[in-house]
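Hi R.,

Here's the chain you asked about this morning:
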Amino acid sequence: MKIHYNPKLKQRARDLRKNSTLSEVLLWEELKNRKMLGYKFLRQKPIGNYIADFFCNKLTLIIEIDGDSHTAENFAYDVERQSWFESKGINVLRFDDIEVKKDMDNVLMAIEGWIRTNEESKGIVRND
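And here is the predicted structure, written out as tokens:
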């Protein structure tokens, strides 16, 4: 899938990678270097006019961590953003910041479960 993005977001994505939240750092440690079932995830990936926390192109999957910036005031923006991703055929998994910090095992099981459930529908065959 060819992912288009607003080039003006490139520097912002770099800045976000340099200033990651603790929960982003913790989850990235579990996703980087193809640790999640051999899939390549990117961090702070510009997609359209948005920046996704984590993105796997092969799975067309975004993983978002909802922290302090995801307040009630920003709910409408989050809904609009997720609707746009989904309109492009991109799936979105959301986890709460506290969940990532305090219950990483369940977060990883949820991601792995989603992948295993959706691999077949995406025509992906793994040899593990």
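One quick note: Residues 7-118 form a domain with the Endonuclease; Chain A fold (CATH 3.40.960.10).

Cheers,
M.
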